[in-house]
Amino acid sequence: MISPRELPEHIKAQLASAGRETDTGGQAWEGRNLGEGTSHTHAFPDDDGITPASLAEALTRFEKGDIPEELVVDALADVRLFAPVVAEISRSEITEEGLVADKEADMALVSIEAPDGRKAMPVFSSVDGLTSWHSDARPVAATSRKIALSAVEDENQLLVLNPGGDITFVVRRPAMWAIAKGQRWNPSYSDPEVLTALKECARPEKSIASVAMFPGRGVGSRDRAGRMLPGGGPGPELSIELSLEPGLDQEQLDHVVESFQYRFSRDALLAERVDSADIRLTQAR
Question: Torsion over CA of 51, 55, 57 and 60, rounded to 10 degrees?
Fold first, then answer.
C-alpha cells in the first residue's frame, strides 16, 4: 500500500489562521464559559444547531445513491460544522485529606483513531449529533474551512462527519486539504492528472506495459443499516493496476514494484491528491 502524507507548503502557510490559543471558530479560550448553553452561540448567534439544509439534502441524495462522494464534499464547502471539545486537567494538587483536587482544566479538540490507525478529527453537522455521540463534549461551531485547518494543525489525517449517525462520512486527506484551501475536490480515482502522473512513474520501467486505475476497496462506506454507499470510506481509495510483460522472475517483479513505489512517493501531485492506494499486478496480453 502507498500512503504519501507530506504536508504541502501552501497548507502550512494557512495554519497561522488556526492558532492554538483559539478554538476552531477563532474565539479565544480564555474567559470562555462552556457550561451555559452551547458554545456555538458565540460565533453563530442565530444558528439553530441543526444540519444546514444544503448539507442535509446532499447527504440524503448520497444515501440514496443519487450523487457521488465529491458532491457531498462540495456541500461541506464553508458550511457551519461543530467540533467537539472536552476538558483536560492541566494541574491538580493533593489536599490535606490526601485527595486529588483539580485546579486547572484546558479545553482540547477531540481526536479519534481510524481503522488503519491514523488520527482523525470527528465533526458534526448538528448539536444533537455531537452530544449524542459524546455527552461530555461541548460543540464549538466554525466553518468547515476553519475546522479543516485546525484538523491539519493537530496532525489529523481525516475528518469524520457524524460518527455514530445514520451516515458516517469520512473526508479523506486530499478532500480535507481542498476544503482547507477553499478549492473543489476531485477523487483521485477519477482524476486524469493522477493517471498521467502514474504513467510517468511507470515510464522508466520497460517491463510495465500499461497502467490503469480504479476506485479502491476502501472508497465505499456503510450506513447504520449496513447498506453500501458510493463513497465516504476511509480508503484505500485508489487501486493501481500495473500490467507487466510476461517472463519476470520474483526478483525482477520486486524491483519493478519498488521502483514504481519510489517514484510515486516522490511525485508532488500524487502526494497531494492520493490519500492511500494499493497496487495489483496483471500480465500483459
Answer: -90
The residue length of the chain stands at: 285
pLDDT at 37: 41
Q: Residues 65-81, buried b or exposed e (16+ Cβ, 10 A)?
A: eebebbebbbbbbebbb
Which domains does the chain show, CATH number per domain?
A: 9-181 (3.40.1350.90), 188-283 (3.30.70.1350)
What does the pLDDT look like over 5-48, one tens digit per residue? 554 554 445 444 333 444 444 444 344 433 334 444 456 778 89
d(CA 137, CA 109): 9
Reported as a single tens digit per residue, the pLDDT across 94-104 is 545 444 334 44
Using an 8 Å Cβ cutoff, are 98 and 141 in contact?
A: no
Whether the ω angle into residue 236 lies within 30 degrees of 0, i.e. cis, is: yes
